[in-house]
Amino acid sequence: WAYRSYAAGVAPTPIPRKRLNRHNLALAIARVTSHREMRLKARELGHKIQHENGVEQAMQFLKKQYLDKL
């Protein structure tokens, strides 16, 4: 999810597991909380997620992939 969030502009550059420590995590948190554009994009993404019907979309996908082929 770190890379997807970064690509969406709602998170800083992902920290590789080998480099993850308190200092790097604190810097990343400070970066995201102080970056206005990232916060705005995160808010927009949150609204989109709230209004999507993920279960319905998943059911339609499964139906199309499997049930329609029976």
Notable traits:
70 residues; mainly alpha; 67% helix
Task: Tell me what you see in this structure.
The mean pLDDT is 91. Helices cover 67% and strands 0% of the residues. It contains 4 helices and no strands. By secondary structure, the protein is an all-alpha fold.
Largest sheet: none
Structural class: mainly alpha
Order of helices and strands: HHHH
- Mass-distribution shape: elongated
* Strand fraction: under 5%
| Cα-to-Cα separation, first versus last residue | 35 Å
Query: How many E-type strands?
Result: 0
Helix content: 55-70%
Low-confidence stretches: none
- Could you report the average pLDDT, rounded to the nearest whole number? 91
| SS element count, helices | 4
Please give the radius of gyration in angstroms. 17 Å
Short description:
The protein contains four helices and no strands. With 70 residues, the chain is mainly alpha-helical.
Task: Show the helix and strand layout.
Blueprint: H1 2-7, H2 22-34, H3 36-51, H4 54-65
